[in-house]
Amino acid sequence: MSTTEQQQQNILDTQSTGKVFLRYLIPSLVGMVLMAVNIVVDGIMVGNKLGAAALAGVNISGPVYTIFVAMSILIGIGGATLYSQSMGASNPDRARFIFTHSVTLILLFTIVVGGIAFLFHGQLVYLLGANAETAPFASDYMNVFLTLGFIFTLENALSIFIRNDGNPTLAMLALIVTAVSNVIFNFVILYVLELGIREIAFGTIAAAFLGLLVLGTHFFKKSSNLKLQKFRFDKKLFILTLTFGFPSFLAELGISVFTIAHNIVFSRLAGTEGVAAFSIVNYVHGIMLLLFLGMGSAIQPLVSYYHGGQKHDRKRETVRIATWTAIGTGAAFTMIGQIAAAPIVNIFGDFSADIQNMATSGIRIFFIAYLVMGINFIMMTYFQSIGKVKMAAWITAGREIFFLLIFLSILPALFGIQAAWLAVPISEFVMLITIIIYVKRQGHYFGKQGTIL
């Protein structure tokens, strides 16, 4: 083992758990917050410059981007978890092989899937919830991602591995470059060149490519353990990688289910105005998703490393600190939603009163979910990182697909369109109850006195 590898392991082993957590949390949150701001600014620019139909069209095509990210996460998180476990067990050679295996498969998967989907893009747009008014915008945006989405998947995968290789700061810098350049590109495209949705998509791809170049500098560092080896397909490793990454894949897939299901419900009950109102809420919701994802990204390398090294006290303490952080963050943003819903909606454009009222009510109701959503994210990441894949998958599938679809089908039918906003909060609270029951039964206690927290 090299001196640099030993130093990295000593930091994780000898620094206080709180300091190590902050060392990974702060870069992760800064990067994710900037990406969230980037997403919101995109929505503000499109909504103000091109109008409600264009904003709805971008939102409708969003699941294509999400599915590409999901594929990169399926293999990226699965491979990175095994990578960190190997590093924790002092086996860097095995870790390098896992890295090579994962990155090669990610590129192959996304290029093939993107090519196949592009052949059926006409049908796909309407399947995602478009109508005659929104389909041209959705199609223009989606087709760019189907052909060039592999740039996103590679950037996302490398960011995950670099974070697991002990360089969360560089992963943060890459996100900063991507976010800032995307805002600049989109401003120039919309307000200087006065182009449209297709060019916005190309600008977003170009920004991701710049982020990829930043990540590439990690491979020139002496501290890097990420060295590409000769690729050799390993069926056993492939299955294990998919198994460990499956909960995160489900989480991303769940975002697509969430978006598509809400688009369909609001389109059916309120037309383009309903989809536009949901698009506003969904843009703001993206901030919280990325914040909680940042917390999960911070603990995943640590929990995986400590689990591989049999350091169970540090593992439990990391989860406890992260959970309380998520609770505080969720409570703060729930309060912001109640107080500032109307001003938040107004920054996305001058919409009709119906859109403004629907979106304002949506934010106030929807934001209640954040009281517990962060806890569910943290617990999913914990179980995934220690190999309890079935429980991690249940948390994801239950809250984002199973319970969500049940409540989204029942509530609007019984109580009207405003009740659709309650589907996510109720799903999150129901899922937390199942987690508490499981934790108590299995004895996964994280508090110092044998308590859950």
From TrEMBL:
Keyword Hydrolase: no
One Pfam family in the UniProt entry: MatE
Family of the protein in this entry: Belongs to the multi antimicrobial extrusion (MATE) (TC 2.A.66.1) family. MepA subfamily.
Membrane topology: Multi-pass membrane protein
Top-level taxon of the source organism: Bacteria
Intracellular or extracellular location(s): Cell membrane
GO biological process: response to antibiotic
Keywords, sorted A to Z: Antibiotic resistance, Cell membrane, Membrane, Transmembrane, Transmembrane helix, Transport
Annotated protein name in UniProt: Multidrug export protein MepA
Organism, as annotated: Paenibacillus glucanolyticus
Leader sequence residues: none
GO molecular function list: antiporter activity; xenobiotic transmembrane transporter activity
Transmembrane regions listed in the UniProt entry: 21-44, 64-83, 95-121, 141-162, 169-193, 199-216, 237-260, 280-303, 324-349, 361-379, 391-414, 420-439
A cellular-component GO term for this protein: plasma membrane
